[in-house]
Amino acid sequence: MKLLIITQSIDENNPICGFFLDWVLEFSRNCEKVTVICLEEGKHSLPENIKVLSLGKEKGENNFKYILNFYRYIWKERGNYDNVFVHMNQVYVIMGGLFWKLWNKKIALWYAHGSIPFALRIAEKMTDIVFTASKESFRLESGKVKVVGHGIDVNKFKVESEKLKVDRENFKIVTIGRISPVKDYETLIKAVEYLKNKGKLNFIVDIIGGAGVESDVAYMEKLKKEVEDKSLGDKIKFLGKIPNREIPEYLNNHDLFVHMSKTGSLDKAVLEAMAGGLPILSCNDASKDLVGDIDENMLFAVGDYEDLAEKMKIFISTPDEPLASLGERLRVRVTEEHGLQRLVGVIIKKYS
């Protein structure tokens, strides 16, 4: 099969989209040829059967040039692909859908988010298949939806032997994601304040991520001021954006992952933490199906900082052996239900 992939970025240093290079590589192992059209191209090293075409964001091109390049590429390359895979950007289905239909190309859209923008409703009518990570990740009623899990390259998240022992004088908690109100960092800050006031618990919390859009910059500054005003600088650190390729190392240096997001969809960062053998704490609807049968202590009520704090306290106090055993069960869950090789294999079969 020859596949055209449309995505946001091909750049191993991109803190949000860097993981997608693993997807492209896995697709290339299952396809004769892969052509990728991306909005922005950065650093990468890909095999010969992958061709990358950029719409030009890294060169400072404007929207008109993006559109012109898009139509030029899908026309020029039309003989080099049989099927189309659009990753998250439903607008490209709307832009190219009629042409791909005329050329008898099968169209698939990957979408994993709790929101239902109007453009998604249009794209759903034009696509042949919609792939999503969980039932909560695509909330538009459609007979085209195939729930296939996320695609996590579990081998990148190897658990080092020293991770089996926790430094009880410095229990490390981490959360990863863009700094945005929907991620509800306020609840985490209040939980840390609650635990600090409770007494002698030795822990720190690292927040990895940056403002996704300009409007979030003020929100991030507000959070930092709140940490300062509450004298929590010794407990909470803002580490900023980290390239996706460095995330496994950071996870290996932590003992617990927390997730306060209100999006409702299954978050890739949670699965990556589990792949790294970390217990998680999440209030997300999708996490109930993911880990509820393993340990209900990994779930807390949305926006309830006391519940989050008490659950954090449980894991801070859990001995090494059961903590490591739990981490291994979570890693197995990700491998079996959300492994990258499995995901790409399922997607390829659905095109047949």
Model description:
With 352 residues, the chain is α/β, with parallel strands linked by helices. The chain has two domains: 165 residues, Glycogen Phosphorylase B (Rossmann fold, 3-Layer(aba) Sandwich), CATH 3.40.50; 181 residues, Rossmann fold (3-Layer(aba) Sandwich). The protein has twelve helices and twelve strands. It has a seven-stranded parallel beta sheet, with helices on both faces. Helix 3 runs parallel beside helix 4. The longest helix has 19 residues. The protein is globular, with a radius of gyration of 21 Å. The termini are close together.
In short:
The protein has helices at 20-30, 63-76, 90-102, 118-126, 185-198, 217-229, 247-252, 268-275, 285-291, 305-317, 320-338, 340-351; strands spanning 2-10, 33-41, 50-54, 83-87, 106-110, 129-132, 145-147, 171-176, 203-208, 236-240, 256-259, 280-282. By secondary structure, it is α/β, with parallel strands linked by helices.
Features:
Rossmann fold, 12 strands, seven-stranded parallel β-sheet, five-stranded parallel β-sheet, alpha/beta, 2 domains, 352 residues
Q: What would you give as the CATH superfamily of the largest domain?
A: Glycogen Phosphorylase B
CA radius of gyration is 21 Å
Give the N-to-C terminal Cα separation: 9 Å
- Alpha-beta content class: alpha/beta
Mean pLDDT: 93
Query: What is the overall silhouette?
Result: globular
According to CATH, what is the class of the largest domain? Alpha Beta
User: In which order are the strands of the major sheet placed?
Assistant: 3-2-1-4-5-6-7
Indicate the CATH topology of the largest domain: Rossmann fold
CATH architecture of the largest domain: 3-Layer(aba) Sandwich
How many strands in all? 12
